Amino acid sequence: MPNITLPDGTVREYDQALSVSELASSIGPGLVKAAVAGRVNGLLVDCAFVIRQDARVSLITAREPQGLEILRRSCALLLGMALKQLHAKVELVAAAAVGDGFFCDFTLARVLGPEDLQRLETRMIALAAANHSLHYVLSSCWSMDGAVLSEGPYVPSTGAMSAFALTDVSGKGAQRIYGVCWTDQQELQAWQATPQVVVINIDERQIDYSQALTDTLRRAGVHAHSDLRNEHIVSKIRQHRLRGVEYVLVIGQREMEGGFVSLRANAGDDLGRMSVQAVCDYLLKAPVTGGIAPPHSKAFKPLA
């Protein structure tokens, strides 16, 4: 019969094997709702994982970096399910978390546009409200396509996803939809306000660094977004200027390897290369017209 050691050193004795979800429930009703995964003897597992022997266990919520990533990864599966329900001939290819959200790759003879995103988002909201198990989502749409999925775990059920929005669709034939996902509506609404600065990567090699830099700016109090889409750099810069974003930070290999950033103003002025600290100081002193403060999720991690 398992003895469970919790992070604070408390040992709980159980007379039979139990799942991570059942462990959370035994600790408190609020925790069972908040838990999205667990760590058992250092191994990341989903909430259905059964603990049969003595173990050290910690519960992971969406307020933690790994938990928020799990939430976003699961949201990508939810998007796949919505695509399947609205477009019977769609072929799902891949789904993953990226930056502040997620993406789903698929093939479809019909090219989807911005007007399709609202229908898909509405269907995702309905699926989330139905609180399906993620096992149902996987078996009903992803497994039949043989899609290449990122490794789990995933949230226990669709009801865990309540603050998401679809943001962009691109491609013809082989298409990709991007979305954003947060832990609650307040964080989502804060994200949706026009940021002061957007961090833009040149190619996929800078994705992790660009997101880490974005989180560092947020920790400093700057309203920052990352744009990690697989789109041409010039197109991304133009889109954000048209939105009224005041500054963009362009991150390429030289910036990443050199530990500096290249700052550009909306008017097109190249403000040159700066250290990460210097750009934080500059943006904090610059006038802000965006209005709403950035979200301060506990999941943000500073750039090392």
Write out the strand line-up for the largest beta sheet, numbering strands in chain order.
2-1-7-4-5
> Structurally, how many domains make up the residues?
3
Query: Uncertain regions: pLDDT < 50 for 5+ in a row?
Result: 298-304
Give the percentage of residues in beta strands. 25-35%
CATH fold category name of the largest domain: Threonyl-tRNA Synthetase, Chain A, domain 2
List SSEs in N-to-C order.
Answer: EEEHHEEEEHEEHHEEEHEHEHEHEEH
Distance between the termini: 42 Å
What coarse outline follows from CA principal-axis ratios? Answer: globular
Assembly status: single chain
Largest sheet: 5 strands, mixed
CATH H-tier superfamily of the largest domain: Threonyl-trna Synthetase, Chain A, domain 2
Number of strands: 17
Question: What would you call the structural class?
Answer: alpha+beta
**What is the correct CATH architecture of the largest domain?**
2-Layer Sandwich
At the first level of CATH, the class of the largest domain is Alpha Beta
Total helices: the number is: 10
CA-based gyration radius:
21 Å
Helix content: 25-40%
Mean pLDDT: 90
Characteristics of this structure?
304 residues, alpha+beta, Ubiquitin-like (UB roll), Threonyl-tRNA Synthetase, Chain A, domain 2, Rossmann fold, 3 domains, five-stranded mixed beta sheet, 10 helices, 17 strands, 29% strand, globular, disordered C terminus
